[in-house]
Amino acid sequence: MTTIHDQLADSVGDVHTDLSALAVAARAKGLARRRQRRALGAVGAVTAALVVGTAVHALAPAPLMPSTVVATDSGAHEAHAGADTSLVALDGRATAGLLADAVAAQGLAASASRGQGDAAGSGETYAEIGIDGVPGARIEVNVQHVPVSSAPAELVAGRRDDDKIGTDTWVAIRTDHQGGLRVTVQLVVPEGQSRPLTVEQLKELAADASWAFDVPATASGEAPEPYTSLGR
Amino acid sequence: MQRHTSFEELVHATGTRMLRTAVLLCGDHQRGEDLAQSAYSVAFTKWRLVSRADDPAAYVRTIMMRLYLREQRRHRVREVPLVDDMHSEVIDPSLRLSLLSALTTLPDLDRAVVVLRFWEDLSIAQTSAQLDITESACRTRSSRALARLRSRFPELAQTAEDDIS
Question: Organism's domain of life (chain A) (predicted)?
Answer without folding.
Answer: Bacteria
